[in-house]
Design a protein that fits this description.
The chain has 182 residues and is an all-alpha fold. The protein contains six helices and no strands. The protein starts with a helix and ends in a 7-residue tail after the last helix.
């Protein structure tokens, strides 16, 4: 790939991540589902990682997660690692051992979204608990927390990811050369 084209793709991806962060901060507090907001940047990165090689997906996830940490987070590096794991997991599940891409696409995302919700909830609460030096990890128990927060957020993230996936699929199909009619 030409260096100019590569830089353009990186710049457009970075611009999309910044715009999704602005959209999420501006509009989604008013569009809550059962008290939860989706994570637009994570959904975008997970869907984009489906079409990338694992090493590129890792860089995408790490950079997007660090952006979220710097702009919105309290603990630098936490979301960088979480996004990186989700992107690498999505890319690895889409790649065969021979390095070819599989075509079951969207079925990879729901388990990755659920694992992200569980890991995010536990790690953020655990770090906050360690910093504050005390308290309970889950005030009402893990089952109640899972049903009240993790599951609705996962459903919302899956719905947003489906929209991003359909957009990615349309872009990829539009770039595919069509049959030659003579």
């Amino acid at each position: 790939m030409k260096p100019v084209r590569r830089l353009l793709k990186i710049a457009l991806t970075a611009l999309a991540i910044v715009l999704l962060g602005i959209i999420q901060a501006a509009f989604f507090p008013y569009l809550r589902f059962m008290g939860c907001m989706p994570d637009l940047i994570m959904c975008f990165c997970a869907v984009l990682a489906l079409s990338l090689r694992p090493e590129k997906a890792m860089a995408l996830g790490l950079c997007a997660g660090l952006y979220v940490d710097i702009m919105y987070g309290r603990y630098i590096g936490l979301y960088g690692l979480l996004f990186m794991y989700v992107c690498v997991g999505s890319a690895l599940l889409m790649t065969t051992p021979a390095g070819e891409k599989k075509w079951f696409g969207f079925t990879v995302l729901p388990p990755m979204m659920l694992l992200y919700g569980i890991a995010e909830s536990f790690s953020v609460r655990f770090v906050a608990l360690c910093v504050s030096r005390g308290g309970k990890l889950y005030e009402y128990g893990y089952k109640a927390h899972f049903l009240a927060r993790i599951l609705p957020e996962t459903v919302y993230n899956i719905a947003i990811s489906l929209v991003f996936y359909l957009i990615l699929l349309a872009v990829l199909l539009a770039r595919r050369p069509g049959p030659v009619i003579e």
